[in-house]
Write a structure and sequence with these properties.
The complex is a heterodimer. By secondary structure, chain A is an all-alpha fold. Chain A contains 12 helices and 2 strands, in the order H-H-H-H-E-H-H-H-H-H-E-H-H-H. Chain A has a two-stranded antiparallel ribbon. Chain A is globular. Chain B is α/β, with parallel strands linked by helices. In chain B, strands 6-7-8-3-9-10 form a 6-stranded mixed beta sheet, sandwiched between helices. In chain B, strands 2-1-4-5 form a 4-stranded antiparallel beta sheet, covered by helices on one side. In chain B, a hairpin with a 7-residue loop joins strand 1 and strand 2. In chain B, helix 5 packs parallel to helix 6. Chain B is globular. The chains are: A mainly alpha, B alpha/beta. At the A-B interface, helix 7 and helix 8 of A face helix 2 and helix 3 of B.
């Protein structure tokens, strides 16, 4: 029974993390770069939002600033990678480490900051909150609000990746040699992709901190693994069905929801110590990453040659 | 159209793997020249093409295309003036993108990539017509992913992409070497037709001496990072493989050509 009760909350959280996972999809699948900045920029978004909102700044402006803070984090990783020639993974790790301090600084050197939701008027002004799960009109339900948010983001990305610039970004991820031979500045595109991706990750962090009404310096820990899990689960479950790019992004979001519902089920049905969740997550993702490789290597089925990406 | 002046390039300088790949190469191509390049492995053929394409900076010398000094321009900026087809059929196209998307990317070579639509309706019709030229049935597969095509089809598509916006210079780096003989002939045939139609200034590396003699109006041979033979005009038309080998021997005092080139 507790599982059924927790379901709307799990779906809401899954949707919020799904936006982050869409950001991960942009770097991991489209750009073919493993970007670990995510673990830091997720919290950057949350911290920026809570601090600005707490200072009385308009909610939408605060969300925009959170997005831009993530964009900036992506820019740093991108510059480290392209201008300084540091491998992408290491660039991400460096930025992530630096962001730990930056995030604390944003929060005034405190490990967490909260939004005052005891004040009912203050609560009512929020866009989403876990408090809206029950006893509020349906249109305020987090699943609906975040769902609309997700659809809007997918629509914008669908448009963007169909433009000249977006197509050149996809080409950069698919084949850098070809991209450069066609006059595409691959370095600029990699940076641009990292900025866009981390902007979305930070926006997701801002939405989560709004939902749970606080930001915490460790809230992004393992975010990249959750993002990868969502991307892979989405691909495994819906890959054959969803060919269109917009649907692929939707699959990522659905993957995040499935991930959260499964985690919720594990927690509420088995009474496992929640400290083991990260271990379980890591194992799930490792298995999902390994299985396609094993399949290709040991059970090679004819007619399915080549690596399928994006 | 192309002016290479005294260009040198040494890889891994100061290490045991030091290799002088280009040693003071100078080459001038007139507009409309179709030059074939031959030479053994390590002679510097590909290095010359890569130097012109701008994959890395050269150690010495200057390169200009169409009167513009491009020596310091990065690869992606030179692409505005230069069309390229690589030896590896996988290298010239984006496998995860559709045929028409690849063509649309090539159609915007040298232009600013804006937020306008990446491909328009009129373009699509145009591509259908252009693809018919290849005679590979690709005109009915505009939305197929390029990864599904054969090596020959991909190479032909790359050729089309390299010439979609008329380049001032076309660089072909053994672009038929990885293909089976029949497909290679087809791609070479398409090359000949496109170069002839647009009067493209072309530099084509080939392994095959017969191809080098049969195509183009001029032939150069490279050896140890230098151009050792440069045969053009009537001389080139009458050339045979035997003569070529003899002249190579005279020019370098080496009989290496026999083993290295005849076999391939």
């Amino acid at each position: 029974m507790s599982f059924i009760n927790a379901l709307p909350g799990a779906v809401s959280q899954g949707l919020i993390w799904g936006i982050m996972a869409i950001g991960v999809y942009i770097t991991y699948k489209i750009l073919d770069v493993a970007d670990l900045t995510v673990d830091g920029s997720f919290c950057t978004g949350g911290a920026t939002f809570v601090v600005l909102y707490g200072a009385g700044i308009d909610l939408w402006v605060a969300l925009l600033c959170a997005f831009l803070a993530g964009v900036l984090a992506g820019l740093v990783t991108g510059v480290l990678h392209t201008l300084c020639g540091i491998p992408a993974i290491l660039s991400g790790i460096l930025t992530q480490l630096a962001l730990w301090s930056v995030n604390l600084a944003i929060m005034g050197m405190k490990a967490n900051v909260a939004i005052n939701i005891i004040d009912r008027e203050n609560l009512e002004r929020l866009l989403i909150s876990s408090r809206f799960l029950r006893g509020y009109p349906l249109w305020r339900h987090p699943v609906l609000v975040v769902g609309l948010f997700t659809i809007a983001i997918i629509a914008i990305l669908y448009w963007f990746f169909g433009t000249e610039r977006g197509a050149s970004l996809r080409a950069t991820g698919a084949n850098q040699n070809m991209a450069r031979a066609q006059g595409i500045n691959t370095n600029v595109n990699v940076v641009l992709g990292l900025m866009l991706s981390n902007g979305l990750v930070a926006l997701s962090g801002a939405l989560l901190s709004q939902y749970q009404s606080f930001a915490d310096s460790s809230m992004g820990k393992g975010a990249i693994v959750i993002g990868l899990a969502a991307v892979i689960i989405g691909e495994v479950l819906f890959g054959k069905l969803f060919i269109n790019f917009a649907l692929k992004l939707l699959a990522v979001s659905l993957g995040a929801i499935v991930y959260y519902v499964v985690i919720q089920a594990v927690v509420s049905l088995s009474h496992i110590n929640t400290n083991y969740l990260k271990l379980i997550s890591a194992c799930i993702v490792a298995i999902f990453l390994a299985v396609p490789y094993w399949k290709g290597r040991y059970f090679n089925t004819p007619g399915k040659g080549g690596k399928v990406r994006a | 159209m192309l002016e290479v002046k005294n260009v040198s390039k040494t890889f891994n300088p100061g290490t045991v793997n030091e290799k002088t790949a280009l040693n003071g190469v100078s080459l001038h191509l007139n507009e409309g020249d179709f030059v074939t390049v031959i030479g053994g492995n390590g002679a510097g053929k590909s290095t010359l093409l890569n130097a012109v394409a701008g994959l890395w900076p050269v150690d010495r010398g200057t390169i200009s295309v169409g009167g513009l000094d491009v020596t310091r321009l990065p690869e992606y900026k030179r692409a505005k003036y230069i069309g390229r087809v690589f030896q590896d059929p996988m290298m010239g196209t984006a496998a995860t993108m559709q045929i028409e998307e690849n063509l649309a990317l090539a159609a915007r070579r040298g232009q600013r990539r804006s937020l306008r639509s990446g491909i328009t309706k009129e373009e699509r019709e145009g591509y259908r017509e252009t693809l018919k030229l290849l005679d590979l049935g690709l005109e009915d597969r505009l939305t197929s992913k390029v990864g599904l095509l054969s090596g020959g089809q991909r190479q032909a598509l790359t050729l089309l992409m390299a010439t979609l916006r008329k380049p001032q210079l076309l660089l072909l780096d053994e672009h038929t070497a990885a293909l089976d003989p029949k497909t290679a002939a087809k791609v070479l045939d398409a090359t000949e037709r496109i170069v002839g139609r647009d009067h493209l200034t072309t530099l084509m590396i080939t392994h095959n001496m017969k191809d080098a003699i049969a195509h183009g109006n001029r032939l150069i041979m490279m050896y140890e990072g230098k151009i050792v033979l440069d045969i053009a005009g009537e001389d080139k038309k009458k050339l045979t493989v035997e003569q070529l080998l003899a002249r190579f021997g005279q020019a370098t005092g080496s009989d290496e050509a026999d083993d290295k080139l005849l076999l391939s």
